[in-house]
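Re: weekly structure request thread

Next one in the queue (268 aa):
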Amino acid sequence: MSSSDLQDTFLSHLIELRNRLLRSILAVMILFLGLFHWANQLYSWLARPLLRALPKGGQLIATEVTAPFFVPLKVTMMAAFLLALPYILYQLWAFIAPGLYAHEKRLGVPLVVASVILFFCGMSFAYFLVFPIVFGFITGVAPVGVAVMTDISRYLDFVLTMFLAFGVTFEVPVVVVLLVKVGLVSVAKLREIRPYVIVGAFVVGAIFTPPDMLSQTMLAVPLWLLYELGIIVASLISRPAPAGEGYQPLSDAEMESELDKTEEPPKS
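Done, posted below.
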């Protein structure tokens, strides 16, 4: 292939990448415009776990002049991106799939689908189970005479951090399967380092959750269980082929027979 052909191929890939990025951005913007009317309602839904935990008469506050306008817009943009995420991943897959082998394509599609589902499961777990307990603890330990009124910007930052922490945590099975599939680590090694993973799970829980044992445990235990799930799935997909299948080395007798055949003179 000449240099001009290589240059044309490179440019065509760049154009295709640009087009797919533009489609993804357009999808997010269309969803954002469609959700814009309900921006305040989306933020109210996001703040519901904290509002339910606050004492009677408690509320969120805005300490910045533009926060009541921009914070709901950020929530709306986040919602639009999450709704468009399957389409964005499809565009990414359509771009890289032509350069993959058949077995890589067979593995890639289930992993991408599982990654999206697990990430949404992690966010749902944080919103419906973790947030009520965490906010109940925070409001419960407030000293007498202290009114708990969180700034809406700070609350959004906290929620996004928790969503990211739990979303990434729920990706552990996918990471474990990939590590085994590409040969970086064996299933036996994963079982061997299990005690270190458990300790690391509680360290991660202590870093990304408020300083109470319950919320730390609610992140650490799912992380550990998802690690175990990844080991189970990896062991299933990496089972050796049954006897009689795949490559079988020749025995000594078969090897000598093949050598004798090559040494026989050709028949006239």
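Residues 119 and 167 are 4 Å apart (CA to CA). Confidence is low (pLDDT under 50) at residues 241-248.
Next request, please.
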